[in-house]
Amino acid sequence: MAEPRLDPTRALVLSLKPRFAEAILNGTKTLELRRVMPRITIPTLALLYATGPARSLVGTCIVHSVIRLPVDELWQRHGTKTALSRPEFDAYLSGRSEGVALFLKQPNRLPAPIPLQALRLADNFRPPQSLAYVDPGRRERLVTALQ
Length: 147
Known about the structure:
- The protein is α+β, with helices and mostly antiparallel strands.
- The chain is built from 5 helices and 6 strands.
- It has helices spanning 18-25, 71-78, 86-92, 116-123, 136-143, and strands spanning 11-16, 31-34, 44-50, 56-70, 98-115, 131-134.
């Protein structure tokens, strides 16, 4: 059976601490936690923006599934896929009864990180606090900012 086509109307930009962006790119993190359910069609391309000190677009991956589960069940079923310790997991989801899990596949490291300055010149990019949505034209301007 053929894989479904990526959402052609938009992609997701995920702001991540550099250690988590690296863990996604090296395949040890296959689940990204969020406190709020993103408004996406599955599957969706995700651009990985590593926050300070890296401040660079470093790669892409595919969000192939999204679920919402009670916090304890989420940890029990998927905690090992998060690259988090249990205290980090609990701190991130503090005050929430449920967490959102974005399941990731096909990590792709860009040939070279694209620094924030180049992203701003190419598209007046402002890193999102958590996540943002970009249309196909903007996505292309961002991933080709150094070319």
